[in-house]
Amino acid sequence: MSYITFEKVSKVYQNRWFALEDVSFEIDKGEFVFIIGPTGAGKTTLLSHIYLKEFPSSGEVQILGYSSKTIKRHEVPFLRRKIGVIFQDFKLLHDRNVLKNVTIALEVTGVPSGVARERAIEILRELGMADKISKMPNELSGGEGQKVAIARALVREPFILLADEPTGNIDPDSADEILNILKRVNDRGTTVIVATHNYAFLDKVVRKRVISLQAGKVIKDEKFYIK
Amino acid sequence: MRNFILSETLGAYKSAKGMAWISIAVSFVLILIFGVSLYLSSTVYNIFQIEKKNIEIDVYIKGDIPEPFKNRLYEIIKQFAGVEDIDFISKEDALKVFSQRYPQYSDILGVFSEVPFPESYVIQLTPYWKRPDLIRHLVTEISVLPGVDEVYAGSDWIAKLSRISMLFIGISLILLVGLFLAISYVIYQTIRLIINARKELIEILDLVGATKSTIEIPYLINGTIYGFLGGLFAAIVLKLVIMGSKSLFFFKLPEYGVIYPLLVVIGLVVGLVASYLSFEEILP
Ligand SMILES: Nc1ncnc2c1ncn2[C@@H]1O[C@H](COP(=O)(O)OP(=O)(O)OP(=O)(O)O)[C@@H](O)[C@H]1O
Ligand SMILES: [Mg+2]
Fold first, then answer.
1. For chain A, which residues lie within 8 Å of any Cβ of chain B, measuring from their own Cβ?
2. Residue of A191, A197, A225, A192 whose CA lies nearest to A212
3. What is the rounded distance in angstroms from the CA atom of residue A15 to the CA atom of residue B2?
4. How many Å apart are CA B79 and CA B84, to the nearest integer?
5. Domain range holding A61?
6. Taking CB atoms and an 8 Å limit, are A81 and B204 in contact across chains?
7. Distance between CA B73 and CA B147 in Å, rounded?
8. 3-state SS, one letter per residue, for B124-152
9. How far apart are CA A142 and CA A131, in angstroms?
10. Are A78 and A190 part of one and the same domain?
11. CA dihedral of residues B246, B248, B250, B254 (deg, nearest 10)
């Protein structure tokens, strides 16, 4: 069974523009998928339909057993707990330190603070951030900030990790490091979906799938398993 | 989870401390005004109830009518609707009552050769007839009977009291509505300000799978506490004023214990409703 199914999904904003038009594809467990396309192609919109921030205007999205057609409002948080999301601007909370930025993802679901803390420290250590846990977000470099965001996304061991332009604000060396982290996450079985217009990235991942969008339509869907 | 809710509640308060205290102050003043009005209503209404229970009609009889005539009058009055019981008060009874009530004047009575009080009938009414309009009707009917000198009911005063207590109750109700709207508005705006200051946080909570109630509860707690504190302070001030009434106004005001918890509950409910509306409006 596939993790994600888009079936003839169209999205119209303000009833006049197709941000997505008739998009269909399936993504399975363990895939590494790039969503590429020029600015305004609909990459962010597509990712938003996976964690149901947006709902299709027509068509259907199925994710991890939930359907955009039948999911209840109060079930959406439970879907979100199975999906990690990171963004170009990290979306960290500037009023609390690194550790608290990570534990919050566990605490809101009722995990006891002690357990949340241990789990967060463990994942931050894996990402090489052990010595930064009590730093505030504004004391971090771009690469470090994104690592905190990744830790927050991974701390609940999601089935799917979505990354929207994850290296847009980061210097090239740190960007490579972030990409390596994403590959490692994928190697452990997590489905990873990266939206980017940084085509240079594509060559750095061997086993990958590339979905190309243009003006809201899928114009190419290629799988590369051997370079 | 408890830790999370607690720290978010505190964080929400800290992001608009000034407005929070303005909310509490406004709630306090308005609930206190309502409390005073409710207190006055209760007092007047209470007096009205007591007086209503004690109401009776005094029928003074002309001094020169013969005994059989008096008995006849007694029988006639007894037939009137609303009359439960009649007592005959002789001149001597009247004198006794007078001297008991005003012992300091009993000497003056010595100057009269005869007891200066008229004979009278005191009519007790059935509970249903203890209404100003019915009493007035009865008084008119009795006063035209032969042998009746004067009829006194004190019902005009009761009628006035009844109108005043209704007025007070009406004012209290209007105040209650006004207070609900005004406090709701202030708390609503405060919570709105807080939510807007914390939009980023709320967006992230939503992203990491916090349920709506988890996100919402800290704001509801804040609004509820603002209203609650306003009500609590109002109740405390009212209680202190009434307790201290003896030294403040030289007489002791009666207490109505139910008012204090009522004020607190009103504050709490307004706070809860207002913050709920605020949250629903901004983040449906
Ligand atoms: N909330 C919205 N309301 C209205 N239009 C929107 C909204 N979000 C996106 N759009 C429009 O939908 C189209 C696709 O936008 P989207 O953000 O998905 O593109 P993108 O591929 O992510 O672009 P970029 O590379 O610049 O991030 C654009 O034309 C955009 O203006
Ligand atoms: Mg985008």
1. 51, 73-74, 77-81, 85, 91, 93, 95, 104-105, 107-110, 113, 152, 156
2. A197
3. 43
4. 10
5. 1-82+161-227
6. no
7. 8
8. EECHHHCCHHHHHHHHHHHHCCCCEEEEE
9. 16
10. yes
11. -40
Q: Which of B4, B200, B203 sits opposite A108 (nearest CB)?
A: B4
CATH assignment of the domain containing A191: 3.40.50.300
Instruction: Judge whether B203 is closer than 8 Å to chain A, CB to CB.
Output: yes
pTM: predicted TM-score of the whole model, two decimal places: 0.79
Of the three residues A123, A138, A157, the one that is the final residue of a domain is A157
Q: What is the pLDDT along chain A (227 residues), one digit of tens a residue?
A: 689 999 999 999 987 789 999 999 999 999 999 999 999 999 999 999 999 999 999 999 999 999 999 999 999 999 999 999 999 999 999 989 999 999 999 999 889 989 999 999 999 999 999 999 999 999 999 899 999 999 999 999 999 999 999 998 888 889 999 999 999 999 999 999 999 988 888 888 888 899 999 999 999 999 886 54
How far, in Å, is the centroid of ligand 2 from the Cα of A37? 10
Query: How many domains does chain A fold into?
Result: 2
User: Ligand 2 (ion): which residues have CB within 5 A?
Assistant: A 44
Q: Do A51 and B205 touch (CB under 8 A)?
A: no
Give the Å distance between the CA of A46 and the centre of ligand 2.
9
Three-state secondary-structure class, residue A85? strand
- pLDDT digits 0-9 by tens, B17-57: 999 999 999 999 999 999 998 888 888 888 887 777 777 88
How many CB pairs (< 8 A) connect A and B? 52
Residue spans of the domains in chain B: they are 2-48+166-282, 56-153
Classified by CATH at the fold level, domain B56-153 comes out as Alpha-Beta Plaits (3.30.70)
Residue A22: left (phi > 0), alpha (psi -120 to 50), or beta? left
Same domain, A15 and A60: yes
Structural contact between residues A111 and A149, judged by C-beta atoms closer than 8 angstroms: no
* A36 and A58 share one domain: yes
Are A7 and A78 in a shared domain?
Answer: yes
Residues A214 and A178 in one domain: yes
